[in-house]
Amino acid sequence: MRRLVCCFALLFLLVAVPARSQAAAAVEPLRLGMAGLVHGHASGFLTRYLKRTDIQLVGIAEPDAAVASKYQQRFGLDPSRLFATVEQMLDQARPQAVVVFTDTFDHLRVVEACAARGIPVMMEKPLAVSREHARAIERAARNANIPVMVNYETTWYASNRAAWNLIKEQQAIGDLRKIVVHDGHPGPKAINVQPEFFAWLTDPVRNGAGALFDFGCYGANLITWLMDGARPVAVTAVTQRFQPDVYKQVDDEATILVEYPSAQGIIQASWNWPFDRKDMEIYGRTGQIFAGRGDLLRIRMPGQQEEASKAPPIPAPEDDFLNYLAAVVRKDIKPAGLSSLENNMIVTEILDAARRSAATGTRVVLK
């Protein structure tokens, strides 16, 4: 097993060197537009990326003046780069790409505005609140021939990429049989998310559901990726509300069973975990992989003790969502895998079916 992991690490190092050299060779910063500030991840985005020299944030669109003012003061944003509408920002700031931090319901509106101007889009997960919205996003992207991508924190985990290579490239654990994905935290109220974020996270229209959509999307995304983009046969889901005084309109606990002809996916999405978690267990015919947060990896093979290791870094430009977006905009790579629209169309189909299953208490067969 050690030899397997070492070979795997060497492969990554060999690939990483030229990729990072290419990234460093880029001279012109990417002109980036930002649609929305009501998503809680907007704060982390500005904290992490605002001072990067390879990115130039040319415009931010936020219709809520109070929210825009709060961010302007906190981050010292140039008031001339703040706009009340996405359309104004696109036409006046003229970004090369747009990152989206609106509520999920507004993803469609932003994509349609960007598509009308031929501008690539990358949004915070999930893609859409419904199949209908997802299909409209797909039509807009196709008609305008623009890339539309979805950003998940787990896409950039070295552990998940390492698991993929062990399963797909090295066939280390045989055919997949069960994938169990755990995602969530103690809940939006418990972790004190911003009030504007809490308002739409707990709105079944603007979020699509509660924990079912907020964290169920991670598992649907990873399972679809590991199943090579296959559509599941059926979806069954159970949702509950353990904190009805806090989450009056949406679920805070969800379990989704995703069926394939020769495998099962189990998605455990929760606003009731005692701590933040994003990890998965992958079981094949001959072995098991635990992919934890960041680069944590544990592997167990028949007749052997479980071995823990540190997954090798992901080579640029696939190590970071803005590096990835910039590479797509410059046509160095094409969107694929976890970030791709194709994957996330299936993610939306799974979530939509899960919502129907939970509401009706039935197994939903995908036709």
Question: What is the structure about, briefly put?
Answer:
By secondary structure, the chain is α/β, with parallel strands linked by helices.
Structural notes for this entry:
The structure is a single chain. It contains 13 helices and 15 strands. It has helices at about 1-25, 40-50, 65-75, 85-95, 105-115, 130-145, 160-170, 195-200, 205, 210-215, 215-225, 320-330, 340-360; strands spanning about 30-35, 55-60, 80-85, 95-100, 120-125, 150, 175-185, 235-240, 255-260, 265-270, 275-285, 290, 295-300, 305-310, 365. The protein has about 375 residues and is α/β, with parallel strands linked by helices. It folds into two domains: about 20-155, Rossmann fold, CATH 3.40.50; about 155-315 and about 340-365, Dihydrodipicolinate Reductase, domain 2, CATH 3.30.360. A nine-stranded mixed sheet has the order 14-13-12-11-7-10-9-8-15. A six-stranded parallel sheet has the order 3-2-1-4-5-6, sandwiched between helices. α6 packs antiparallel against α13 (about 340-360). The longest helix has 24 residues, at about 1-25.
Helices and strands in order:
Layout: H1 2-25, E1 30-35, H2 41-49, E2 55-61, H3 65-75, E3 82-83, H4 86-93, E4 97-100, H5 107-115, E5 121-124, H6 131-144, E6 148-151, H7 158-169, E7 176-184, H8 195-201, H9 204-207, H10 211-214, H11 216-226, E8 234-240, E9 253-260, E10 263-270, E11 277-284, E12 288-291, E13 296-300, E14 307-310, H12 321-329, H13 341-360, E15 364-365
Parallel strand pairs: 1-2, 1-4, 2-3, 4-5, 5-6, 7-10
Antiparallel strand pairs: 7-11, 8-9, 8-15, 9-10, 11-12, 12-13, 13-14
Helix pairs in contact: 5-6, 6-13, 11-13
